[in-house]
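All the exercises in this workshop are built on plain-text protein records. A record pairs a protein's sequence with a compact description of its fold. Read left to right, the backbone structure tokens trace the chain's path through space. Once this layout is familiar, the rest of the handout is easier to follow. Here is such a record, shown just as it appears in the course material:
>
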Amino acid sequence: MVARNVGFVLTSVIILAARVSAQEPGPMPNPQEMQMRVQQIMQQRPREAEAAARAFLLGVAPDRVAGLDSLRDRAKQPTSVEGNPIGSPAAADVYWMEVAQLTVQFDMVQKLSQRDGARAELVGKMFGLEANARAQQRAYRAAAESGRPAIRTKIEALITQHFDLEDQLRALEVADIERRLAEVRAETQRRRERRAEFIKWAVDDIVRDALRPR
């Protein structure tokens, strides 16, 4: 499920996506490392992260690009005029939190696509839904009480889609487990059927080794 703050999924989504066949080399994303990367981007605010975040949205949630641009524009507004505070100084933090999350998610999907295209596609769609859910969360926070029920309905629809995609991700995991189990069972049966042959080979090796000159 999406985290309560619709922030950055570091539990079931990443864990499920990371469960790829053991034969596929290379490290998978580490949730703690990814959280640290989000914090690092928020603090350092590299311009290349903005480009990465925008590119990712174009792929997974193109309808959110304008929203990201709006957050950026608010973040660039002056926080004071002649010493008098105006607007919200937290606007930049909101924008860079969104950029950081999208950038790290983008990197994860790219790496995952090199190992498992089906999982990468599902995770990308889930992250796109989360971007929309975060936007609705911000709208809910700013809305009048009378407008909040409608926004809640939109959030519920997004989370429902997210849950369905997670279910598909779990189905891939189940299929992988069943495939590996079938392989182990087949190998076990093969060894049982050739038990005498394997024992003879093992004994022959031991005897030959015993007769080798030392």
Notes: The chain has a mean pLDDT of 84.
